[in-house]
Amino acid sequence: MTWLAWRQFRTQAIVGAACLAVLFGALLFTWWQVRGLAVSTGYTGCTGNDCQKAADSFLDEIEQSLAGRVQLAGVGASFGLPALVGVFWGAPTVARELETGTYRIAWSQTVSRRRWLLVKLSVGGLAAALVAGALSLALTSWAQPIDDAHATLAHANLITPLVFPTRGVVPIGYATLAFAIGVTAGLMLRQTLAAMAVTLALVVATQIGAVELRPLIADPVHRVTALTAERANMVARMNDVVTRVEGWPSETDSWELSNAIVTTPGGPEYRGPTDQEKCTPDCREWLGAQGLLQEERYVPARRFWLVQLRELGVLLTLTAALSLISLWWIRRRPA
Amino acid sequence: MTNVLRSENLTKRYGRRTALSGCTLDVPVGQVVGLVGPNGAGKSTLLQLACGLLEPTAGMIEVLGERPVSGSARVGFVAQDAPVYAGLTVAEHLRLGARLNPSWDSAIAERRIAQAGLDPSQKAGKLSGGQRANLALTVAAAKRPELLLLDEPVAALDPLARRLFLQALMELVAEQEMTVIMSSHLVSDLQRICDHLIVLVGSQVRLAGDVDDLLASHHRLIGPRRESVDVASYGWTLIEDRHTAAQSTLVVRSTAPIDDPSWQADQLDLEDILLAYLSGSAPAAAPERVLEAQR
Questions:
Q1: Last residue of a domain, one of B186, B210, B234
Q2: Chain A interface residues facing chain B, Cβ-Cβ under 8 Å?
Q3: Which of B99, B139, B150 to mutate to test the interface with A (most CBs of A within 10 A)?
Q4: Fewer CB under 10 Å: which end of chain B, C or N?
């Protein structure tokens, strides 16, 4: 059965591998550019306070170089991968057999329907995990100097929603889940095109939903501090009336979930009124003396691996659950 | 075990549509069984129930003494239109069979492919209808099942390919101890090769029996016109009657020979018998729908 599953999957696997090879080629091509820029901007080998400046100019240079575009492409590919895996690998796996009637030849061999499906799920799921893992690994090692520079500047980077799903181990979870979604949709809808459309919608919904749900497993830091003049960052005014006050984040390299100035913890955001006289030209001193509180919720960068592993666990659990549902479905609801 | 297939009150419904209802059958082992009926009579449904691709809505079916499950080594099945994997070559289909069936007989498979003149390196999607049917039959037969189910295997074939396919099937039956149940909407396909016949009309079994018995027990009687015939008093079962101004023509079933001199008794062939059943007692089914012209 493994042979047949692989044989049927071969063309899709080759196409996928070819796409991956193009991306790897681009990463390899710009590998030395990234490292070269790190040296030429003085970031590599910097010491002490020079590092921040060097890191800044290194990142600027990267942004304007080919490497910057490759990085964008890499991130784009990482975000697109689950959808591609689900739509082009997962959805047709069973749907095409049901649609063209070839399931009748497969199920007439000495192999149970469940084993047939299990092997198909395993072969495709494994391939999806491999591709996603390889892409994440390649992107991470390619971007090592860039990530370092962000860390030097305490930028919010790996933990933010735009980078987090492309790095570490979660891409494996997203790819396998997308594959399982595709297979299950194909099994239930029995039409390749419909299954592809539904899979695309579900995978994108999963990715969006993950951003909303990630704080639940990240157990974010909840922090309430007194707003001092130093911490007051920005005062937005309209017609000389203060409409919004912001405070500096406590940890700049974190994923900020909320950051508000309040009068009581959990209370509504503070919007004035302010003393016009004392607030011109600068309000900070005055604000610092009002006994206001800064209430923050954020996921610090140091939680990266913890959140990665938890999220991978959730995604793999969902994958397993969907696989079990489809294995149950195929036995209960035959053709 | 004397029955290869036994069913009692077997019923299959798809939503509101009844595909098969109250089907009670006993199919003896070691024969070539023809399953005839018009399109939509429930032939495919019955065969797919028999190989476990479908689950009955009600009633009982037993194949080789077991409840049928797909993936059994003992039952081979060639579905309607002989599905094959278009992207796989002929040789890869044999490899598929060998990998997926512990009981695979590669000698039979290779010999049949050679006999059918199939090029092992050809993609199955490029085969003609007859070649595809032959490939599907080879994969099903080389598994060496005890029961081979064929769903309209020759429907899509031209007359020559049809003959070649049936010949190949007969050779297989001769060399392997195997019961074959094959369906067709054309009795002419089946009458040359079947020992046993099941007629399905409008999702119900209309007639089932050994071909020899059917032939021996059905008679066409022609005599002067009479308004009504008390067939029961003769021990006959009336299947069909037609009356013209001058004469009456009956088709009756009788196990005893017909010795009433007022009737001229003729033998019927299988097709005649079938037509009599379909037109005589099936007012709902239009006869012309029942037996389509041979393509």
A1: B210
A2: 1, 3-4, 7-8, 11, 100-102, 104-113, 115-116, 334-335
A3: B99
A4: N
Q: What ipTM was estimated for this complex?
A: 0.83
The answer to whether residues B226 and B169 belong to one domain is: no
Q: Does the N-terminal peptide bond of residue A273 adopt cis geometry, omega within 30 degrees of 0?
A: yes
Alpha carbon distance A47, A59 (integer Å): 17
Does residue B285 lie within any of the structural domains? Answer: yes
Q: Are residues B235 and B144 in the same domain?
A: no
Q: B210, B237, B264 — which closes off a domain?
A: B210
In a shared domain, residues B32 and B79? yes
Same domain, yes or no: B33 and B137: yes
Q: Which domain holds residue B232?
A: 213-290
CATH code at position B258: 3.30.70
Q: At B173, which CATH number?
A: 3.40.50.300
Which residues fall within 8 angstroms of residue A200, CB to CB, at 6 or more apart?
A83, A86, A87
- pLDDT tens sequence across A269-319: 887 666 666 666 677 778 888 888 999 999 999 999 999 999 999 999 999
Q: What is the pLDDT of residue A333?
A: 64
3-state secondary structure B242-280: EECCCEEEEEEECCCCCCCCCCEEEECCHHHHHHHHHHH
User: Are residue B141 and residue B256 in the same domain, yes or no?
Assistant: no
Interface residues of chain B, partner chain A, Cβ below 8 Å: 48, 51-55, 69-73, 75-79, 81, 83-88, 92, 95-97, 99-103, 136, 139-140, 143
Residue numbers of chain B with a pLDDT score lower than 50 = 282-295
**B23, B152: one domain:** yes
Q: What is the domain partition of chain A in residue ranges?
A: 2-219+303-332, 221-301
B142 belongs to a structural domain: yes
DSSP B66: B
| Percent of chain A residues past pLDDT 70, beyond the cut | 93
Which residues on B lie below 8 Å from A102 (Cβ)?
Answer: 83-85
Q: Give how many domains chain B has, as a whole number.
A: 2
Do both B199 and B148 map to the same domain? yes
Write the CB contacts of A94 (distance below 8 Å, at least 6 apart in sequence): A103, A117, A120, A183, A186, A187, A326
Residue of B nearest to A98 (CA): B83
Does B74 lie in the same domain as B107? yes
Question: How many other β-carbons are positioned within 10 Å of the β-carbon of residue B140?
Answer: 26
CA A218 to chain CA centroid, Å, is: 14
Spatial separation of the C-alpha atoms in residues A179 and A199, rounded to whole Å: 9
N-terminal to C-terminal alpha carbon distance within chain B? 39
Residue A240 has pLDDT above 90, yes or no: no
Q: What is the pLDDT of residues A172-222, one digit of tens each?
A: 999 999 999 999 999 999 999 999 999 999 999 999 999 999 999 999 999
At B205 the pLDDT is 87
pLDDT digits (tens, 9 = 90+) for B263-284: 888 888 888 888 888 775 543 3
Instruction: Judge whether B295 lies within some domain.
Output: no
Q: CA of B134, closest CA in chain A: separation in Å?
A: 13
- Residue A165 pLDDT exceeds 60: yes
